[in-house]
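Researcher: Last one for today. Full complex below.
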Amino acid sequence: MSVPSRLALVPFISVDNMMRFVLHIGVERMLVELAQEIEADFRRWEHFDKTPRVASHSEVGVIELMPASDGELYGFKYVNGHPANMHAGLQTVTAFGVLADVATGYPVLVSEMTFLTALRTAATSAMAARALAPTGAHTMAMIGNGAQSEFQALAFRAICGIEHVRLYDIDPAATRKCAANLAGSGLRIVPCATAEAAMEGAQIVTTCTADKQYATILTDNMVGAGVHINAIGGDCPGKTELHRDILLRSSIFVEYAPQTRIEGEIQQLAKDHPVTELWEVFAGRAPGRTIAQQITLFDGVGFAIEDFSALRYVHQRIKPTGFYQDLDMIADPDDPRDLYGMLMRAKALAG
Amino acid sequence: MSVPSRLALVPFISVDNMMRFVLHIGVERMLVELAQEIEADFRRWEHFDKTPRVASHSEVGVIELMPASDGELYGFKYVNGHPANMHAGLQTVTAFGVLADVATGYPVLVSEMTFLTALRTAATSAMAARALAPTGAHTMAMIGNGAQSEFQALAFRAICGIEHVRLYDIDPAATRKCAANLAGSGLRIVPCATAEAAMEGAQIVTTCTADKQYATILTDNMVGAGVHINAIGGDCPGKTELHRDILLRSSIFVEYAPQTRIEGEIQQLAKDHPVTELWEVFAGRAPGRTIAQQITLFDGVGFAIEDFSALRYVHQRIKPTGFYQDLDMIADPDDPRDLYGMLMRAKALAG
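Model: Here's the assembly. Have a good evening.
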């Protein structure tokens, strides 16, 4: 009918193109580079317009919008969390996002973010562990072997130098799937029959379970001194993975306290329980791990700035790859006040 | 590389396809049907999960996310407001939106919403006027002849029976553009040299100016008894169109008071100044206009439920028209826990 103007077009990265892009960069290299981008943004944390995510809860799940802006770019992510989806053959978490130019308000990128979220979550976890885990950590226990697990394992290998990963899931099929996917990754993978067995000799424990019903993945007696816990499965009100007593023994690090107090493990604690925001560690405002016996806990729920960093990273690199398509998304009449005239001209063209 | 599954695909309505759809339905018929959808949702207002929109302000404009859900469907709109865009040949307001299934969290529609917002805003204004304007109103003054103006005029013709529209804009070129576009619409159009002249004999006054700098479009002496004011240009903090004294003489109707008190004309008034939410009128909980001499004011800022209604309307009707394209937006591995395996299989397929 009519030919869209250049201003009307917004690059869109489909799932297929995102996979091409990730494979083009390489999974581990992309995890390393995403962690660099996120860390750089955490260092300038105070520049950002931040807000806890806007959540719409239903009985079966949650739909969230996560906006962030640094004054030049604005990004937001749409993400759902529906634990029962898996049983219907659907993803528990799917996501897409948009990056926009603050000066004009025009979107500059629309992207799938299911893959990108898995990558940025793993990059953030490993970035936190690099600052918090004990020196020389080489073994990680991974409790929960679902969609996040391989990305976590590869990020901890690439960013923290982890060599051994000990797997446990209440469903042995998930463990088999994870072990098979990580064969050939360079990691030594050990499937375990219990969570306790998975934690033997581990300096880092990652919990990434999805289901609301398994509320306590780790009990207090399972966690020894000096361990770093990377708890990323508890990320909505009522959903936690760790027994409260573990929290009371831990130095707790969070992304953005106002959001984590609602969604994270620390919803089990008093509202004024001391926590450190991770950016403070990277900006040199607060210490990370200080002594060997310390239990450090990253209570990760995912924050909008991580998505912002990931969208910007992709936006900066996508054009030369060609792994995108242009969407005719912005109505752009010749005279900006003549939106109706644009419609009438389209009618005339259609005859 | 890989063929997306059926679940991965989300229908997308481009600007071009939205124009085809609007022309297929017919502008006035679509305005009437949108007003019916919006009124039906206003009647069941209390069913909705409501939140004031989430705004990110900068010196040059605002980017907003506007979510709403009725428990079955969830919708949100991304919309910017950048008054200086016009001088750079860009739209002041552009928008797109998403409708999703609450049960799964999966998006079911992505759509341009610059056109759809113009249509739903006009439908909402005319719907409000049908309940609030004096009986037998036939003449409307329209102050501000920008991108919204033709849609407003056509909605008031189709929904309220307006026959005469008197135009005024500080820029005569805008008035000429609006008058030319409305020639042949069946409306009698009268371009006027001043705002005062435009208001002669008008029972309804619509103010739809975009620029923050023209703060007072209507002064108190311009507004006589019995008039209905449809004020839709003031829609962000610091941006108003009416002198405060007019507000003090008016019965004020708003969409959602917590949002309008921040963004609307009533930001000039005390926080507890009485206002009526429009849904209360349609649900029979509050009166509309009660006496002929009353000045009624619809302080319209645009609310998320109107976008929700509009997205649902389009979603219900788009499939048979074919005016959409499928986007591969949702990563959908065969085993929902095997997101990483999906990537590896894509790699294998690519050789």
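The CA atoms of residues 22 and 231 of chain B lie 25 Å apart. The radius of gyration of chain B is 22 Å.
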